């Protein structure tokens, strides 16, 4: 390769230089904290921020995600196969049975060979496996698994030894956050310090270390998990957990003077689940007040009301809500520009009131 650098690397270098220059000129500074339950999409927003307003992802940054993405595709296949056993759905086709044997027989190194890649795509195309996948709300498989498996059809260009993940792969990868990740970005001349935390229950005790001087909390809630249970507790519905976590967060003394932003995320998956697959909002039986139809706008309105109802002092607290698809870079760009403008305005008003 010599001294040649890729287009993505050159772009990343240019961005980094621009970032350093603009940091010097940024006049205002805000601290944004991403909170929300596990898998709601916090890190996906954070990755988009790094891509849009930060140092981006160099070839080596993206290459580091290879084992995670490979783990993602293999784990999904294993989880679905076990779910098939639990659900009593048998694979009847001989090539699917053979593929299942290959996946189940993987050792700890779990390398993505030609055989493994082809076994996963064989399963993905199998009719019985599709029946298992249809029941995916009842087991823990990552939302972007099917998109990654579609890419695997291009093995070895995707997933092989020479492969470097693309920016799209970076966004689709699922890496559970542990601890706190902290970075600075420049959005329209505003220095934004953003903190991303892990959302699963055992991660939340670390949150308090980030609470000092927060200008704004961005609470990320998934719109598509109304019929799913938590990864860490199979007795708890994901939406119930998200609502009670939101309640605890916005009514906490730490955020009395912080702007509260709510991202109702994964709208693409809500559309797929509610509108295309016709799974009603009250599928779990826990939300009898939810609209029963397939109307997307009505569903979003209901979600907004449910979250707003968690405020203990609605007259004093405004929530700024956005419907988002965190995997869509352009949409996150628009939403984040609006969000930082809003946060600055709220901050300015609060400062004026103190005068
Ligand atoms: N289709 C779709 N997938 C999304 C969206 N937002 C996030 N995802 C995917 O959902 C998975 C989980 O997202 P993360 O950003 O890792 O979730 P998180 O909130 O950081 O999770 P923790 O770190 O465990 O708290 C990833 O595979 C993302 O690619 C979305 O709007 N649409
Ligand atoms: Mg995360």
From TrEMBL:
Signal peptide, first to last residue: none
UniProt GO cellular component terms: cytoplasm; heterotrimeric G-protein complex
Keywords: GTP-binding, Magnesium, Metal-binding, Nucleotide-binding, Transducer
Keyword Cell membrane: no
Gene Ontology MF annotations: G protein-coupled receptor binding; G-protein beta/gamma-subunit complex binding; GTP binding; GTPase activity; metal ion binding
Residues bound to GTP: 39-44, 196-200, 265-268, 326
One GO term of the biological process aspect: adenylate cyclase-modulating G protein-coupled receptor signaling pathway
Protein name as catalogued: Guanine nucleotide-binding protein subunit alpha
Species: Hondaea fermentalgiana
């Amino acid at each position: 390769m010599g001294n040649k650098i890729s287009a993505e690397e050159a772009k990343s270098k240019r961005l980094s230089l621009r970032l350093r220059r603009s940091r010097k000129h940024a006049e205002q500074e805000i601290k944004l904290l991403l909170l929300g339950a596990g898998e709601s999409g916090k890190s996906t927003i954070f990755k988009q921020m790094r891509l849009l307003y930060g140092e981006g992802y160099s070839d080596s940054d993206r290459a580091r995600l290879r084992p995670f993405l490979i783990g993602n595709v293999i784990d999904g296949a294993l989880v679905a196969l076990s779910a098939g056993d639990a659900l009593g759905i048998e694979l009847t086709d001989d090539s699917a049975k053979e593929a299942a044997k290959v996946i189940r027989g993987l050792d700890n190194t779990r390398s993505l060979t030609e055989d493994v890649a082809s076994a996963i795509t064989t399963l993905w195309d199998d009719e019985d496996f599709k029946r298992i996948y249809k029941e995916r709300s009842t087991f823990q498989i990552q939302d972007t698994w099917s998109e990654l498996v579609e890419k695997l059809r291009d093995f070895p260009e995707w997933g092989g030894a020479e492969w470097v993940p693309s920016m799209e792969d970076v966004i689709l990868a699922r890496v559970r956050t542990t601890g706190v990740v902290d970075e600075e970005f420049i959005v329209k001349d505003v220095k934004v310090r953003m903190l991303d935390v892990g959302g699963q229950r055992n991660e939340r005790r670390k949150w308090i270390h980030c609470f000092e001087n927060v200008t704004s909390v961005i609470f990320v809630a998934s719109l598509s998990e109304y019929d799913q249970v938590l990864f860490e507790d199979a007795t708890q519905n994901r939406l119930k957990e998200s609502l009670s976590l939101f309640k605890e967060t916005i009514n906490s003394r730490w955020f009395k003077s912080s702007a509260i932003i709510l991202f109702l995320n994964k709208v693409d998956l809500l559309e797929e689940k509610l509108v295309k697959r016709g799974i009603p909002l009250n599928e779990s039986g826990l939300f009898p007040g939810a609209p029963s139809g397939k109307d997307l706008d009505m569903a979003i309105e209901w979600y907004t009301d449910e979250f707003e109802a968690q405020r203990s002092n609605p007259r004093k607290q405004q929530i700024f809500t956005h419907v988002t698809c965190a995997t869509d870079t352009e949409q996150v760009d628009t939403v984040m520009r609006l969000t930082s403008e809003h946060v600055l305005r709220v901050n300015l008003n609060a400062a004026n009131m103190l005068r």
